[in-house]
Amino acid sequence: MGLTDLSLTAFLDEIDSNSPAPGGGSASALAGALAASLAKMVGALTIGKKKYETLAEECKLEFVSALQMMGEIKEDLHRAIDRDTEAFNQVMDAYKLPKSTEEEKAFRHQQIQKATLLAIASPEMIATAAQKGLKTMEIILKVGNKNTLSDMGVAVLLFSSALEGAILNIKINLPGLDDRPLAEAYTLKNESMLKEMEINKKRLLAEIHQAILG
After folding, report:
1. Interatomic CA distance for residues 174 and 156, integer angstroms
2. In this structure, is residue 66 part of a structural domain?
């Protein structure tokens, strides 16, 4: 049974345990999936309303496309909840390999490197999906039912948390990479994504707060 097959209570209990996984990576994926779900809810509470029906067809199509994107992000991040924990477990399994002989040490090191790359690839995918979701929130906010402004704000916060949380999980694995140029490339990409996230998050939340105040 995967993590996503558990009840909410059981899932929380899995995190609230002495096991390091599921941890921050899976929690980040869940945060992003929740954000996308909220965006989809906004869509369901917008399409068909009188104000929506008065919009230009081009605007409607853009909104529907954004909602479809949110559906894809939701599914990707839903799967990533289990995938991230599986990747972490592979790292742990690699470190448990025998190291009595030079051959065993070499094989163990090789497996650790492979597993570390997987442990980086998983949160990288989460961060990329969350970044896409955060950008797409601009369209959701522009068209979405104004009665759901607080829900849109929470979606922005959750996408931002998912993105930064995923990047933290990338960062913690980078020292274990032998390929230092690759590690540096990840570092530069991480910093760029975080800067862009802060700009988008601040702008979107400012718009939402202002819109709520009227």
Report:
1. 27
2. yes
DSSP-assigned letters across all residues of 71-106: HHHHHHHHHHHHHHHHHHHHHHHHHTS--SSHHHHH
Total domains in the fold of the chain: 1
Name the phi and psi angles at 7, rounded to 5. Answer: -70, 165
Please list, in sequence order, all residues whose beta carbon lies within 8 angstroms of the beta carbon of residue 37, skipping any fewer than 6 positions away.
74
Instruction: Please report whether residue 196 resides in a domain.
Output: yes
Query: What CATH number is given to the structural domain containing 27?
Result: 1.20.120.680
At position 190, the amino acid (one-letter code) is N
Tell whether 5 is covered by a domain: no
C-beta atoms surrounding 62 within 10 Å: 15
pLDDT per residue over 139-168, tens digit each? 999 999 999 999 999 999 999 999 999 999
Angle, vertex CA 21, rays to CA 17 and CA 25, nearest 5: 120
Q: Where are the beta strands (DSSP E) in 20-150?
A: none
Q: Decide if 127 is inside a domain.
A: yes
Dmax over CA atoms of the chain, in Å, equals 73
* DSSP 3-state percent helix, strand, coil across the chain (nearest 5): 85, 0, 15
For residue 128, what are the domain limits? 23-213
pLDDT tens readout for residues 108-131? 999 999 999 999 999 999 999 999
Say how far apart CA 118 and CA 93 lie, in whole Å: 13
Instruction: Report d(CA 84, CA 33) in Å as an integer.
Output: 14
Residue 111 CB burial class (10 angstroms; 0-12, 13-18, ≥19)? middle
